[in-house]
Amino acid sequence: MIPLRLTLQNFLSYHQASLDFSGLQLACICGPNGAGKSSLLEAMAWAVWGQSRAINEDDLIHSGQTEAQVDFVLEIQGQCYRIIRTRRRNQATYLEFQARIEATANIGDPSGFRSLTGRSLRQTQARICQQIHLDYETFINSAYLRQGRADEFMLKRPAERKQLLADLLKLDHYETLAEAARDSARQYKGQLGLLGQNLSQIEAQLTGLEDLACEKVSLEQKIRALRQQLEHLQSEQQKLTELSQSRQLWQQQLTWANQQQTHLQAELTRQSQSCTTAQAQLQKLRPLLQTQAQIQAGYDYWQHLQTQDRQLAEKATVYRGLETRRQNLQQALDQASLTLHQQLQTCQSQLTRLEQQQADCLKVISKEAEITAALQNLHTSKAKLHDLDDLQNQAFPLLQHQRQLELEQERAHSRLVARMDELRHNARQLQQQQAGQPQLQQAVLEVTSKISHLQKQRVYLQHLQDKGLERRRFMEQLQDRQRDLETQLGQLEQKMQLLTVPDACCPLCDRPLDELHWALVKQRHEQSQQDLLDQIWVIREQLAVSEREIQVLRREYREVDQELSQLHQVLEQRGRLEAQLGNTTSLEAQLHRIFNEIQTLESQLQQQQQVQNQAPEWHTLTTQLTALNYDEKTHALARGEVERWRWAEAKQAELNQARRQLHHLEQQLPALIAHQNHLQTELKTLTTNSDLAQELQTIQAQLDALDYDPTAHHQLQAQLRDYQPYLLQWQELTQAQATAPQLQQTIQNLAIAIDKIKEQIAETGNQIKHLQAQLHHSQDTPSRLKQLAEEMNQAQTNLETHLAHLGRLSQQQQQHHQLQTQLGQLQQQQAHAQSQLQIYQELAQAFGQNGIPALMIENLLPQLEAEANHLLGRLTGSQLHVQFVTQKAGRGTKSVGAAFRKEPNKLIDTLDILIADTQGTRPYETYSGGEAFRVNFAIRLALSRLLARQSGSELQLLIIDEGFGTQDQEGCERLIAALNSIAPDFACILAITHMPQLQAAFQTRIAVTKTTAGSQLTLIS
């Protein structure tokens, strides 16, 4: 992966920034702490993998903004790709993936790329990882040496270091495979146990079955007899049922006849009531028919009033139409008058506004002389400012060159001062170390004593462990014995359960038992049961005591183990103290060299100041600047003078505008005054000579000619309402004249119907007497039918019981054959499960920590060691050498009785790192910060190359984030030289530092500065 261009928008501390990596093979990203150097690399990782140090992606968005975007163009195996990742606050993340169409296309031209974006974010991310052959974890552990992570591998304990290497090589999936194999092995082991139980049960069932043929023949004979009995009972039941059905039919007919008799009686009552009602209605109509003449006279007068009302209603319709027209015309006349008044008011308002504008324009024109003088002053100030701008353009390159000389002098001075500060700091440290030599000797004695005590505690810890294992084995034996006794107890309880069955046989010999032998067998079984319970109780007591002993041993083991956890740190402390004590012998010579170098640097500082004051180039620049006589204050005053008179330009524009507006107003005023006079004339003629006034007079004349009186019409309508009841009486009279003949006919018909119903009642009474006589002479059968049903139910129950027993016997015979078949299948399954259990146990061991992962680490460590020593030789001038040790001799003891016996040393797995220099092999902790960093850097870079090769990708990009602060001048020079030497191996190397003395060592620098507008990038070559 080779970066080509990175564009940031609102990402972390950057608002708008772009960086072109073209031609950058070895560059330094420099700037103060917190300026945003590491954010550039975070942007690359976030664009490609969507990963960053931020927990929430919204934290990546620049403060106060709503969207962050990173546009990253990179090259992979000769193909150019473009990745654009965008994040909106509180919304989803958008990802675009593009590939360059032609190799010659410009990377800044979006049309030169074709889209490879998938339908979802997950699919697009998968396509990116497929193209670059590198995931995020491999990137940060190979190409990206992150801040504060360079020494992580070295500071781990040997066991942790080996685990870290396995994690970096992604060998954890072997542990997943091992766990899956162990799970499968446990499943097959449990399956074997279950199969064993099933086999035992089937074998027990097969031995308990006997021959069932005789019992089956006896049951079949009983079933035939019961079926014959059921047929006889069913025949008798059928005869009695037919007789019972005849009685039920007679009973139903009698019930129907009684219901018919009741219905006829009710119908007779209803018809009689209807006849009485009709006679009453006819009697009620007779008074109305007697007043026929009076009702007819009132009805005739009501019709006369109705005719007069219709005539007046027609006039009323015409009257309302004319009145409505008159009101509409009056409203129109009033509205026209109101409109003319409003137009007149508007015209007067416009006339007043134009007169005010005319006065304002005359006021502005009166200031014409003052504005002309101000314009003259403005032109003079602008001419002076233009001359000073030309003078500034001549002086600016000279001032810039002078500032550059001052910056170079300051950089050289800063390097010398920084070196002097470092030497003085080292001198103080050496003096403190020289003063602390007695304390170091005393500390070495104390640490040695503590190590001796901890080694004794380690022997005692092994003794505790052996004793705990012995107690655990003893408890496992007790638990096995307890399970055996509980199994025996369960079997004994089953045998005792068999003795409770009447006429039970002996559970041992299967012979019949008399009362004496039955009691003897029961007594022996109860005694055996009690013995087993006593043994189980004793075992439980022993288990409780052993558990308490194990708890005490565990507590003591944890205390001793906690104390022993300090042994490694104490050993490291002794190594550091011994190394410090050995270094104190050369402190005097080192102090002498440091003081000499400080004096030399002070002399260089004095000489540097003198050389600067006497430099010809500096003198020439000063002479040229004096001859130009350029003063920034004079330039600023000239700018202020221009700004002071700049208002005259605006006032001149206002003056011209006032002249134009005054001319326009003089044209508008005469027309507006004429319009006002015209509106006043129209308002006077509207109420007298207008069309609306004349039409209103015509309507009023038509109303007078109509001769309609609304009051007289209302009185006629009141008299019509008084005669309205005669209309209702006339309608009732007409209905009565039509209804009276119908009522007389209805009364005759009802009398005929009543006579017919009386005849039907007499016939139904005779039928009821006949049915009662038939029911009295027939026999009642329900009691015998109930008895037959009980006998049939009992016979059916016995038949079903025998059939069920016969089915169980047949089922038992079939089950015997099925159990034989199932026994063979279970035996085959048991053999298969045993084979699978052995296979998965072997796989779990192969995928375990000491299997394939350990073998891979053993094969890769020589490559890592060779690569690290190659790089370390470049960094240290072949002064340091590392060696990886994967096994070492262990010490242990084995208990025999109460004594301990020494065993031969065994090899144990580890991952120690031995570092050798010209003085021999020493622990890592005894090396200085600069030396330790060079070792860390070499191993870390070697590990990066190894990880890249493992992932199938070529490591073309290397990013080093900080780590130079521990280096002295020589170490830094060696580190820069090493970077230059390995530069041909990489397409791009980026080093991040905030130290000014290191920035000058790089020919190409990317300066990062933080401003109020966000972090800014500057490329310095």
TrEMBL record:
InterPro entries: AAA_GajA/Old/RecF-like, P-loop_NTPase, Zn_hook_RAD50
Entry binding sites for Zn(2+): 506, 509
Gene3D superfamilies: Helix hairpin bin, P-loop containing nucleotide triphosphate hydrolases
UniProt GO MF annotations: ATP binding; ATP hydrolysis activity; metal ion binding
ATP-binding recorded as keyword: yes
Keyword flag GTP-binding: no
UniProt domain Zinc-hook: residue ranges: 454-565
Coiled-coil intervals, chain numbering: 209-253, 319-346, 543-611, 648-675, 740-843
Keywords: ATP-binding, Coiled coil, Metal-binding, Nucleotide-binding, Zinc
GO annotation terms (biological process): double-strand break repair
Similarity annotation: Belongs to the SMC family. SbcC subfamily.
Subunit structure: Heterodimer of SbcC and SbcD.
Protein name (Swiss-Prot/TrEMBL): Nuclease SbcCD subunit C
Species classification: Bacteria, Bacillati, Cyanobacteriota, Cyanophyceae, Acaryochloridales
